[in-house]
């Protein structure tokens, strides 16, 4: 009660502090990041391993068991689950609640390096990942239309590159896109006619597909690096690749096999209203404003719409900013109602303390009924 009386006696200071808090709160509200889900650390880390063509049984024996043996000595593990499948396997590690996840991630990476020497030759480098809710997509941009697959893929990749230039975007992943692939179909009869073996052909290709550093050249005009560019970059390079050379005779890859451009087998299939489609899943950076990021994505999409091939239709889905806007709207209504009620209660008393003879009448007959009008909306 003494605090209220002190505030009334220093009415001008009280109103100044109130205005300051309103301005500071408004600025903080505008600048604070808006999130769909809280940035909660989930104590789960998983290790993925891939080995093309390996069976689930061999994956369990050759990949998972050595990895589990190395990981089980880590402190703070609550549960460890391994899954084997065709072409690889993964180990999911759940730590105790409250564990230091940064240290746990470091320990897992160190143990994975130790287990790497026990894995068979040819296995891809194991990847260590942590579960992060903030990396889930905030919006999905879908390109669809009755167009050739390569045209749709090229348009999606170009739009993806523009999305990744937006400051708040962490990454943009493509779904429904097949990677380009060069297929080499070897003719056994031609291989035999040149008295070559398959391993000789593979060794010849591997020996040529590399960048050879040839030192440097230093002269009066400067210092220049010299290299022999023998990397395979186009299908023509592969077509004309020499496999065996004796004297003036050169056997090229095109003499032994059929080289043609194709695509990998589809791993994901995307459709929109029955038409072929490509989806771009956009994730934002931790701490970035979700609403501003989504608005920037939509602005970039609209700017690029005129540059896309004719017949491409763009649609948005899984837009998390819609629910955030609704929650913010409800919050704003509640806060504004509370502010009006506080003003209706505090301001008349404060003004009456300054000029009681001039404020008492309007305060009693104007502001007081306003309280009764607004009070039911709060409840």
Task: Put the structure in a nutshell.
This protein has 379 residues and is an alpha+beta fold.
Give descriptors for this structure:
single chain; alpha+beta; 379 residues; 27% strand
What would you note in describing this structure?
The structure is a single chain. 46% of the residues lie in helices and 27% in strands. It has 379 residues and is α+β, with helices and mostly antiparallel strands. Strand 10 and strand 11 form a beta hairpin. It is elongated and about 110 Å long. The model has no long low-confidence stretch (mean pLDDT 80).
Layout of SSEs?
Layout: H1 2-9, H2 11-31, E1 41-50, H3 56-71, E2 77-85, E3 88-95, H4 101-116, E4 127-132, E5 139-144, H5 149-163, E6 169-175, E7 180-186, H6 188-193, H7 198-208, E8 211-219, E9 222-229, H8 235-239, E10 242-246, E11 249-252, H9 253-256, E12 257-263, E13 271-272, E14 275-284, H10 290-304, E15 313-317, H11 321-354, H12 356-378
Antiparallel strand pairs: 1-3, 1-4, 2-3, 5-14, 5-15, 6-14, 7-12, 8-9, 10-11, 13-14
Helix pairs in contact: 3-4, 11-12
